[in-house]
């Protein structure tokens, strides 16, 4: 029996075994990525699929800069809106709702609301902001009108160049279906599917509410509220009191044209010691950005370091089963400033 004959006869067998093993591994991976290791109604189970990394992610940096370049609905600082950073906020002890006010004027001194409300995604986004109970532990009741508002927002977002780019990337990475209707369903589950944030309550939260609207925990502390439009509108109506910007000790101050800020504020009397938000970016940009990070990992917490435009950011996403629990940016540096 020749050596060549043995190799040629065994090669198909080995190949089939390798293909079978690869298919099995891929099936397990896809099951994990679909969230089957999580209870769909609980936040309290963890996955061990992929460890989060603090190393700079070059691929995501490239993708997110494409999204940034496509974000034609991003507002321009100094033109479409003006902010006043004022003083640097101080330390607030855990559990305390007492914060020294280092900013005696609002953060936003001007926003072009006419332009804001003329853009479809912003208009639908604003319609969603009054649809939720403020406190966790109180079950959400979603009306037919609110369901329709959710769908209209998803429809508007999916039509943008930003989300089209994100969708193509996710399809290429086999994390999203190519069919637009199925992709909308996936986005809906990630951002609007209700779940239990409080162990003892009903379905009281969703990703959109926590990240973009904000919540209170037992009416004692502010959680979420990482969106600049909601911050501006709540500040305008007297519900938010801006206390000052946050920066590490002995580091220089952020600029008033920065698109990412760390802030201290109170919301309806409850203090948030530090909250990180994009400023001026469109709703579709944030939804696309955090959806990609969410779908590229099944870890309970994922953080990636990227450079988007001039900003070196740590982007953080927590999951709750098949939905986002929270997501926010952390500014590490800007224009070569170490903040």
From TrEMBL:
Residues 56-333 form the EndoU domain. Pfam families: XendoU. Monomer. Its cofactor is Mn(2+). It catalyses: ribonucleotidyl-uridine-RNA = a 5'-end dephospho-uridine-RNA + a 3'-end 2',3'-cyclophospho-ribonucleotide-RNA. Keywords: Endonuclease, Hydrolase, Lyase, Manganese, Metal-binding, Nuclease, RNA-binding, Signal. Residues 1-20 form the signal peptide. This is Uridylate-specific endoribonuclease. One of its GO terms (molecular function) is RNA binding. It comes from Oryzias latipes. Belongs to the ENDOU family. It comes from the Eukaryota.
């Amino acid at each position: 029996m020749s050596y060549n004959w043995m190799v040629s006869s065994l090669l198909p067998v080995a190949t089939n075994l390798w293909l079978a093993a690869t298919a099995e591994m891929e099936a397990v991976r896809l099951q994990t990525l679909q969230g089957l290791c999580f209870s769909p109604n609980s936040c309290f189970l963890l996955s061990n699929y992929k460890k989060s990394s603090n190393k700079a992610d070059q691929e995501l940096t490239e993708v997110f800069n494409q999204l940034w370049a496509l974000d034609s609905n991003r507002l321009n600082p100094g033109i479409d809106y003006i902010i006043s950073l004022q003083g640097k906020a101080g330390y607030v002890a855990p559990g305390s709702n007492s914060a020294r006010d280092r900013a005696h004027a609002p953060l936003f001194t001007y926003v072009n609301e006419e332009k804001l409300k003329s853009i479809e995604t912003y208009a639908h986004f604003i319609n969603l902001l009054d649809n939720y109970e403020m406190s966790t532990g109180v079950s959400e009741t979603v009306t037919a009108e609110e369901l329709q508002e959710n769908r209209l927002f998803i429809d508007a977002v999916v039509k943008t160049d930003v989300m089209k780019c994100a969708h193509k990337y996710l399809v290429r990475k086999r994390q999203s279906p190519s069919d637009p209707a199925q992709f909308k369903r996936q986005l809906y589950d990630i951002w609007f599917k209700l779940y239990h944030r409080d162990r003892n309550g009903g379905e009281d939260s969703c990703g959109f509410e926590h990240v973009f609207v904000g919540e209170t925990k037992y009416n004692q502390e502010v959680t979420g509220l990482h969106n600049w439009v909601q911050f501006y509108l709540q500040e305008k109506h007297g519900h938010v009191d801006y206390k000052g910007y946050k920066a590490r000790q002995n580091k220089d101050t952020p600029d008033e044209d920065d698109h990412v800020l760390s802030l201290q504020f109170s919301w309806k009397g409850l203090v948030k010691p530090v909250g990180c938000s994009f400023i001026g970016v469109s709703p579709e940009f944030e939804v696309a950005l955090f959806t990609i990070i969410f779908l590229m990992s099944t870890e309970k917490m994922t953080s990636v370091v990227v450079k988007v435009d001039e900003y070196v950011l740590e982007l953080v996403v927590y999951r709750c089963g098949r939905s986002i629990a929270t997501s926010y940016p952390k500014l590490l540096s800007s224009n070569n400033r170490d903040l």
